[in-house]
Amino acid sequence: MSFLVKTSYSHNLASTAMLMCSSFCPQIPNQFRRRPISSFPARPLFSVSFKALSSQANNASTKDELPARIGFLGIGIMGSPMAQNLLKAGCDVTVWNRTKSKCDPLISLGAEYKSSPEEVAASCDVTFAMLADPESAVDVACGKYGVVSGMSPGKGYVDVSTVDVETSKFISGHIKTTGALFLEAPVSGSKKPAEDGQLIFLAAGDRSLYETVSPLLDIMGKSRFYLGDVGNGAAMKLVVNMIMGSMMASFSEGLLLSEKVGLDPNVLVEVVSQGAISAPMYSMKGPSMVQSRYPTAFPLKHQQKDLRLALGLAESVSQPIPIAAAANELYKVAKSHGLSDQDFSAVIETLKGKLQKQQ
Predict the structure, then answer these.
(1) Second label for 185, Cα 20 to 30 Å away, from 80, 197, 230, 282?
(2) What family is reported (predicted)?
């Protein structure tokens, strides 16, 4: 399998060329098992220049180099800044969200609003979706007034949600019945990287669609990988988030143990940041964790969901992941104590003993 990564860019953009580049499966409602076929007429695949764009390119691109009309479904912690970066780059963006008010800031920046995923897909050349979980991803893509009903040959659907392999393949199959193209491209990164256009895209699926939307991925992210067949992107994202969740659980233990034996946990954060186990996550989250503050960048409930999906993925290939399994139990306890919507670093609260004493 070949892995293609976005090139880094010099100040001379004119000389920069783009590189051409678990088994958990949620119960799929019966109504989604029939594959509706769009009756929309076929039209040629939208034209786009393959000049690579950097997130720091100061909008050097023009609309002519991008798909003419871009849809974005799911305007939450991640989707909102991603769509905003597309708007700032001069893209024609149409948005949808279950709660319309979340779209208002984007509408004020020039985005158009449609009342259903179907309408967005029907009116756009390529549609992105950033949804909370596999169930939402299936519903938005394949449910009543879903994306599938608005797709047709010449269009593309890019799901940047974090889902399991089977869900991604299920959605891909439905999209392809319409003659449209499908790409999964889950992202590594949370709220701040999304705002700064520093996400990492883990793409798999139709390579021609990957090449077409690469300039858009470059607006929203700092790097991208093409991983081959549908499912590989989903699997890579679950492995990455499995590691991240386990790291945070272990870091939480270290912070509390250092304090319990009379050490300054703030000094521990500094020591860790200068050693072989240094990670940006520790330096970024550590100081606020010491102060028991957990501003939400990546909701704890999503981290637990990803660990759950990773456990299913591991089970499908008979791979033991005992550390991730233990971490998952910790996040489940955190959820049961009402920490679901706080940042995943709030998992440290489950180790303090206070929550258990409240029962």
Answers:
(1) 282
(2) Belongs to the HIBADH-related family. NP60 subfamily.
User: What tokens does 333 get?
Assistant: 């306890």
Q: Domain span at residue 321?
A: 235-357
Q: How many angstroms separate the Cα of 80 from the Cα of each of 39, 40, 123?
A: 31, 29, 20
And the tokens for 88?
Answer: 């700032």
Supply the DSSP string of 196-207, one letter for each residue.
Answer: HT-EEEEEEE-H
Q: Which amino acid is residue 277, in one-letter code?
A: I
Instruction: Count Cβ atoms below 10 Å from residue 255 Cβ, excluding itself.
Output: 24
Q: Which of 229, 256, 282 is the last residue of a domain?
A: 229
Q: Which amino acids are annotated catalytic?
A: 237
pLDDT in tens, 266-305: 999 999 999 999 999 999 999 999 999 999 999 999 999 9
Of the chain, the end-to-end C-alpha distance in Å amounts to 51
In a domain, 7, yes or no: no
Tell me the DSSP string of 258-270: HHHTT--HHHHHH
Single-letter amino acid code for the residue at 19:
L
- Count how many domains the chain has: 2
Same domain, 60 and 153: yes
Query: Is 88:59 a contact under the CB 8 Å cutoff?
Result: yes
